[in-house]
Amino acid sequence: MTKTSAAYEAVPVFPVGTPQPAGSLQELIEATLYMPFPFRTNPHEDRAAAGVDAWLARWGITDDPAVADMIVRTRPAALAAYNSPATDAELLQLVADQIAYQFAFDDRAEELGRHSPELLLPLVCESTDILRDDRPPGTPLGAALADLHRRVQQRCTPAQAARWAWNSREYVHGLLYEAVAQSRPVPVRVGMCTSIRALIAGVEPFYPLCEAAQAGELDPEELYHPVMRRLARLSADAAVWIPDLFSAVKEHRTGGMINLALAYQHAHHCSLPHAVTLAVGRINTTIAEFESLYRSIAPELSASGVGYVDGMAGWIRGCYYWSRTVPRYAETAAVPAPV
User: Fold this and answer.
1) Given its phi and psi angles, is residue 326 left (phi above 0), alpha (psi -120 to 50 degrees) or beta?
2) CB 57 within 8 Å of CB 100
3) What is the pLDDT of residue 22?
4) Residue 61 and residue 68: Cα distance in Å, rounded?
5) Residue 240 main-chain phi, psi, to 5 deg
6) What backbone phi and psi angles, to 5 degrees, belong to 336?
7) How far is residue 94's CA from residue 98's CA, in Å, rounded to a whole number?
8) What residue ranges do the domains of the chain occupy?
């Protein structure tokens, strides 16, 4: 791979365009969001869904009825199937189980963090000890994480597994940042919101699994190329900002702040539909830059490199189609969005 492709192409702003009549906030999002990636799903979705239920029950995570209900409303296997449509059944199960774990972990961290960031410290320290030092777990969530870590080490190369552990630790630490931000008396600024959102998105821990899905391991020069690193940032941002659009109603109702649409609403003192429109414009520009950079570097990529970037694009596509249908965000379709 040559170094010349590190120069990014100029990417024009991709505007929302002329607003179209929309009866609900969901219709507004669907009418204005730029989604160039068509819907796809994995044929092993049903098997993965049954596997998630059994795996969560094995570690006692769904013994809590509230967690069991949350899993029903979030459909982790559907998100995995939409993000990873070509993945084999074994790897899809790993992706689905990890998504389910992160949903449960995130909700637990949010519950504790709302009372005090200090209450998160035991959860964060246990997770870090497991991921960094292979320390034995002491909680059901810790046991589930240790199992994921073991399975990643079995499926991935040592380098891929190390990247998975590093990205997972960053995600865990990000939840502590979120708790501190939520404890502030005033909403965070847009820039701080996106910085924290990048940490707690929980998307980048899955990128080493995208690597593992390829026939061959990516060369370090290819994996760490500046354009590839930029593609990873763009895809992770777009993938998590899209659910922010659909979850804004729920987050507003429950007092959440680390949400792109809500950050724009606080910054501009505007209605939620207008804030969503502003957020859509930023997401559209992000996806357009991802497309442009992918076109610029594609001729220099190996087959594994192409598959890896396709996996990152899959997260953008998958999060969109999942957000449109998941029961967790059903309120979005009931909120009017006058133009």
Assistant:
1) beta
2) no
3) 59
4) 8
5) -90, -30
6) -65, 150
7) 6
8) 7-36+218-339, 42-213
Tokens (6 digits) for 17:
């365009």
- CA-closest candidate to residue 160, choices 206, 201, 202: 206
pLDDT of residue 12: 36
Tell me whether domains 7-36+218-339 and 42-213 share a fold. yes
C-alpha to C-alpha distance for 31 and 53, rounded to whole angstroms: 35
The superfamily CATH assigns to domain 42-213 is: Farnesyl Diphosphate Synthase (1.10.600.10)
Average pLDDT taken over every residue of the chain: 91
Upper half-sphere CA count for residue 155 (Cβ side, 13 Å): 24
Q: Which two tokens stand for residue 34?
A: 């730029």
Confidence (pTM): 0.92
Say which DSSP state 236 is in.
H
Contact between 4 and 283 (Cβ < 8 Å): no
* Diameter of the chain measured on Cα atoms: 56
Separation CA 277–CA 280 (nearest Å): 5
Question: Which CATH superfamily hosts domain 7-36+218-339?
Answer: Farnesyl Diphosphate Synthase (1.10.600.10)
* Spatial CA neighbour of 282 closest among 253, 261, 305, 262: 261
Asked whether the predicted pLDDT for residue 6 surpasses 80, the reply is no
